[in-house]
Amino acid sequence: MSRRHRRPFGEWLALAFGAVAATVFLTLAVQKADQDARLLHAEHTATGIVLGFEGDPARVAFVTAEGRRVVAKIDVYSGTRVGDEVPLLYHPDDPSWYAMDTRTHHLPFLLPAIALAGAAVMGGITWHLWRR
């Protein structure tokens, strides 16, 4: 008579962590890919003023072609300080989310590819632990 193998709590915890991490990585990849895709097709430019920093991203204010004042959190070129002007590319659908410093974004889809690779690795680890 065979006994069923019961998984210890640590394995269940590892499986749950892997599943959650893979989902987070996949969500980030999809969001960033959408942002990059829209910005690649954006033809709207503006000059923004750096208002301040919240950790890594900067708060940048700019005015859209339609005259709308927008504040966006974006990554800016290294060495940029409060009060500096920043050349921006933005998409009119949601310029506070779809905006970027044109000096920093050289490799579109790099971050989504990294996040997707992270999701694949975490999914593989989770699958391996589940199959044990």
From TrEMBL:
It comes from the Bacteria. The chain crosses the membrane at residues 12-30, 109-130. Keywords: Membrane, Transmembrane, Transmembrane helix. This is DUF3592 domain-containing protein. It comes from Micromonospora echinospora. The lineage of its organism: Bacteria, Bacillati, Actinomycetota, Actinomycetes, Micromonosporales.
